[in-house]
Specification:
Six copies of one chain form a homohexamer. The first copy, chain A, has seven helices and no strands. By secondary structure, chain A is mainly α. The longest helix of chain A is centred in the C-terminal third of the chain and has 23 residues. Chains in contact: A-B, A-C, A-D, A-E, A-F, B-C, B-D, B-E, B-F, C-D, C-E, C-F, D-E, D-F, E-F. At the B-F interface, helix 3 of B face helix 5 and helix 6 of F.
């Protein structure tokens, strides 16, 4: 159970209502999820978070599906239950198939494993990696 | 400095040499990075890790660049220095531009933020998310 | 469900009962929460943890509310459900208002975001920060 | 070494320069730290991050020192080296004494310990904690 | 509720059934737990994970109980609920007593605390530790 | 570089000197490592941490080597550099061979991987696991 009360649409003040309307218009949906309704107890955070997500998740050099997959991969790594649930749904809505989900989970699992192997052995960063970074070379 | 000695190619026994050769052949490179040379101190782990990565990172429903971006996103979330260095390089090699990197980092940052917001407020998972999962619906 | 049985007050041996009594006397309450009742299955850990918390959380250069807010911020960052519940309650008891909670969550969210941005880009620590540390300077 | 080049003040385009100027004016300093200079490689992220921090860290129900202490506590929990360095400095600038630092670290350490104890034993959340949350009670 | 449907034994295709049979034969049990039944939705991951665990958890220089205790310690540190439940059970099956569990939890708690203390103060690694590592000395 | 000055033996006040002496007597060594010298800037934390570690790491139902291995496994999972260095050394001193280290790292890597797999798929805890816990059964 949330540690603060959720703010339903008809209980919302003008600032919160405006954000709710924008969420529904932007995502082409007719409902507000629990995350937004809980964040609404602190309107500046609701506004800032929504505006940030709108900007960060828009199509760019990375397409929307790729961005959702990255969001899901981070949420799985952090083991955030709500986020895994909502972003698995969002990824599916953006076009993720069951096979894609299986492959994403496999990559996330391996990455979490090798992160600990390399840190645990305190492997030194290869000079080659540093050289490429100094010049922002796109290739190695 | 690594907690075990690195095994150079010419010091390697037959099992390790075979893995080194396969890494270079598969990745079309002529060198072995420090991670593999450290893992080689425990040959079963070297073999298993390489075989797993080969399987997991091959092109599938997700293309190689997407898989590298996911790997990088996890490494950034875990703040693993070696991994960030090597997978930034690998992502660039697979086609990641500076703009893609900027967008990826923005998504990873936001995801790490909202993961804590939703967990910190202990937001309950919406029923809608559970219904979609029960039937493996690809859409929400 | 806990992986060990909880030890209720009337089931407790002398060492555990003494700790329970001290908790209730120190906190001016008449009940023992589930955390203590589970820890009690290993009495040395119960005793050491209670004694440590008593020492660490007492008023000092930081007042009790500030200490509770820090405890909550860590628990949110780690996404520990029980801890978030109990420390949100403890913070409220110590004087945290809804507005304070909203601001704390905003700071915790931003910190978790910028931690990953700076680590992900492998930003080098500015010399200025090192100089100030060498001399324990209180100012920068 | 950062994975992208830092953008120095005199190399910066108009959007980045404007942010640099605002940082220096707001913080009453005459230099830009490495974090901002690296973020500047992706101007939307630089702008959004600075605007968010400005809003989140301003004095409110929580004073600036308390906010910096929370930021430091999160950075220590996540073990982000750059952040620990910069926020230890920022906390000192905001008034943190050596004694306060010692007490903060003690709280952060204990919280990271008890988070694992309670999760490891899978302690169930007491009903009392849930009741208080349902009504947003400020007291327990 | 899992984000994909579980694959029951009688619904399983040949590859999955073979893995299920091997799990039951190796562990001398007559049932398949939920983790395997969910992983089965992506057969390559089910196969690779089972084969890896079989190899990694076999008796070696470390005995099976020690390996289970390590697995549990990691799961507690990461606060993975399913893993804590299943590996507490597996550790008990391998010979872990209540006293051992209490001592393990105490060590895990302290390690999570001191990890943050040392990182938070940015303590430099002693030269002695580096010397011993360079030569793989078994003693310090 | 540490964020506070290290307190060398001959600079130490009586409380700190007493702890230094006890460390050296207990561990049968003639030097104080950087971690203790940094903690000494806040004497209550130095004392409490040393007393806690002495109690927690003593031989019990788990022998000293097993406790050191657990400590190392947690430090690797958290990717704490100083801790990995010092506890790899301590584990070797307690009897850890190169083969044991290789097997420990393999277990830690797999555990970090499967933790994310099971959390990412939100696998429900099997009823069997709950039953065994309710009665503290040592067997499953």
């Amino acid at each position: 159970m949330a540690t603060v009360k959720m703010i339903e649409y008809d209980q919302a003040g003008p600032e919160v209502k405006a954000v709710y309307d924008d969420i529904m218009a932007t995502r082409k949906i007719d409902w507000i999820n629990n995350f937004w309704k809980v964040l609404a107890h602190h309107p500046p955070t609701l506004t800032r978070t929504w505006e940030s997500l709108k900007e960060v998740m828009q199509p760019g050099a990375l397409d929307p599906l790729t961005k959702e997959l990255i969001y899901l991969a981070v949420s799985v790594t952090n083991q955030c239950n709500y986020c895994i649930a909502s972003h698995t749904a969002a990824s599916r809505k953006a076009g993720m198939s069951d096979e894609m989900l299986g492959e994403l989970m496999a990559v996330v699992g391996m990455a979490n494993e090798t992160n600990r192997l390399v840190s645990g052995y305190q492997v030194e960063i290869d000079e080659r990696f540093k050289v490429s970074r100094a010049a922002n070379s796109p290739r190695l």
